[in-house]
Amino acid sequence: MMVCEYKPGLEGIPAAQSSISYVDGQKGILEYRGIRIEELAAKSTFLETAYLLIWGKLPTKDELQAFEEEVRLHRRIKYRIRDMMKCFPESGHPMDALQASAAALGLFYSLRDLHNPAYIRDSVVRLIATIPTMVAAFQLMRKGNDPVKPRDDLDYSANFLYMLNEKEPDELAAKIFDVCLILHVEHTMNASTFSARVTASTLTDPYAVVASAVGTLGGPLHGGANEEVIQMLEEIGSVENVRPYVEERLQNKQKLMGFGHRVYKVKDPRAIILQDLAEQLFAKFGADKYYDIAQEMERVVEEKLGHKGIYPNVDFYSGLVYRKMGIPTDLFTPIFAIARVAGWLAHWKEQLAENRIFRPTQVYNGHHDMPYTPLDQR
To answer: Is the pLDDT of residue 241 over 80?
Structure first.
């Protein structure tokens, strides 16, 4: 019998071959289809980047216009899904609402014609188009209000902010939000992407694939960290409290949310871009005292833990950006999901190309040949 080496969390074990994204954690490099994240953040749009990831190339002008128009025409959700969402408890977490809503799409579009390019494209368009609508709709419905209908004259990010806040967003805020989506859209074989590929390998429909990935992203060790960063900054309260807070956490061997990464041993390149985006927002709309706390915390943590390769990750500054836009803290992770849907779909499409169902093994550490004890003797 073959003896396998056990790796907790499958750390360092390749689960697939992929050409979608690349990370060099020692140098702080992140690329989508070979293009550096800094270049895409500065020059691209979210929908163009989504097209790049899913179809493997930058679209021509006509291809991009066609894709944008298809997404625009599929933003609305069926009234039965909207009615279902009205029955969700107001106290429920938006990630749970999103998972249920994404899964419900499969009831309407579960054809599973996985060899048909038209079905693949329709599914991609529908999921990218409707996920933002469902996130915004639940936010309004849990406050007792009807959801706001999408506006066809607004682009992808501006439309989401409009549906969320019931007013047309500032142009700078919409542009910054679009860049945030680019930064969160894909990041190699993380937990939710692995979940998506495992589900995809069974040849189920893409709505189940996305629902399983949303459920995985909802955990605090994956997508929920930026919510906890804001809670941490609020707990610290002032710049003067940063050093004693960090020292106490380190002494008690407790985590510092927003710091450290399984891959990056330098400052996350996405965190660098997000910090600049935050400063752009503060310059136009006013400062945030929690940003001063965050900056001091970065300095103290680098002093204490920089030698261990522990620096800010993507979650450390993203919450401050969303907070300045007036977005509720518990919507931070659903917004993460809005972006990451395109990455999950890229992996779904890649998985289908050379599919083999995932069937890992295990290292058994239980008993053998145990006798059965009758019920009356237990």
So the answer is: yes
